[in-house]
Amino acid sequence: YNWITEKEYSDIKFESLDGIAKITINRPKVYNAFRPETVLEMIEAFDICRERQDIGVVILTGEGDKAFCSGGDQNVKGHGGYIDEQGVPRLNVLDLHKRIRSLPKPVIAMVNGYAIGGGHVLHVVCDLTIASENAIFGQAGPKVGSFDGGFGSSYLARHVGQKKAREIWFLCRQYSAKEAEDMGLVNKVVPLDKLEDETIDWCRTILKRSPMAIRMIKRAMNAELDGQTGIMELAGDATLMFYLMEEAQEGRKAFLEKRDPDFKQFPKFP
Ligand code: 2NE
Question: What pTM was estimated for this model as a whole?
């Protein structure tokens, strides 16, 4: 595929192709573990995807054929979090989770190898997961002194159920792509050499669908788990749609024309 580079970064690749954006964690020497700078770059790329009207779907993946992401970079883990180049401890990957979740466009994890620890959480947070046959899934926090009690556990439990989610976290075992598919953790498993083809095929199908309908479905499904924040985001999109209606325009027009609004003209649907 002739991916076009959107912006150069040190830790990620950010490319696009016909309405599809691809964000690739590019630290293969550490199995695509992320450090604070990696996460900041991903946040910026996702923000660009949000603003860009020509992008309808985002793929998140890892460089190479060994790992999607092996979680937080243990080389920079210190007291209080993962230490950035200024010496500040951070856990900014949680901000990335929020970005992926509230992006009003589908995000597909294209899992090409190990998805472990915080790398596993990244695919859990994505809307869909397509994995290669060599992919391996699992949490590692309780083995290495960490945990993710946010989307990494609650949303995981929505995918696989409470018992299985507790097993995944308590035992820190690794699961094959087939096992992950059987437990509802991934949408499809394909041979590694077909992974990008399959993912692009899914993206192209999504791009044929109504972007507003997809946006509302993502918001509504998130809202069930996200409490007030989820309702706020769903309501924000309801407001967006209301602004597109004549009824909302009438209020604004009447204000500017210094007259009473005529809302009686609008139907009161059953
Ligand atoms: C991924 C796994 C199971 C692969 O094992 P294996 O045996 O196939 O490869 P190896 O030799 O362990 O790893 C290859 C290279 O990648 C580095 C390794 O150190 C090794 O480097 P060299 O020795 O060749 O120089 N590497 C792999 N993962 C790394 C990491 N996370 N940080 C830095 N370097 C890493 C195996 O590598 C593994 O178990 N990795 C560690 C997984 C892990 O514990 N991740 C952190 C969990 S906590 C977390 O991510 C987190 C959280 O819980 C909450 C919030 C935010 C983050």
Answer: 0.97
